[in-house]
Amino acid sequence: MADKDPELRDGLAEDRTVLANERTYAAWARTGLTALGAWVAVEKLMVDIVPDWSLRAIALSLLAFATACFAIGFWRYHRTSSRLRSGFISTFPTAVLGLLTVLLLIASLGGIAARLLE
After folding, report:
1. Which pLDDT belongs to residue 66?
2. What residue ranges do the domains of the chain occupy?
3. If exposure means fewest CB atoms within 10 Å of the residue's CB, which of 59, 78, 88, 99 is most exposed?
4. pTM
């Protein structure tokens, strides 16, 4: 039946691509937030268990990983979204996602700064 209406089939394929792009961004953001949560857990629960230098290395690694997840997720979303917009397909506003990403980056970079300044 889909062969009878190629415009419908193409429109549905475009919708699936847009939704997949949004799910991919959400997965990157979720991974980054999980790394931030792991950082907090490490900072609070492993203080008396591991040496300070090891705790610092683990914390900075988790924070760097979270920062990378947020940046890469937005970069991928923006790149795919730009390609989709060239075909006049509506996507989630990049400015809103950019603002969210900046807030997440500030949180993770603030954690890095706080850890380095101790």
Report:
1. 93
2. 2-116
3. 88
4. 0.76
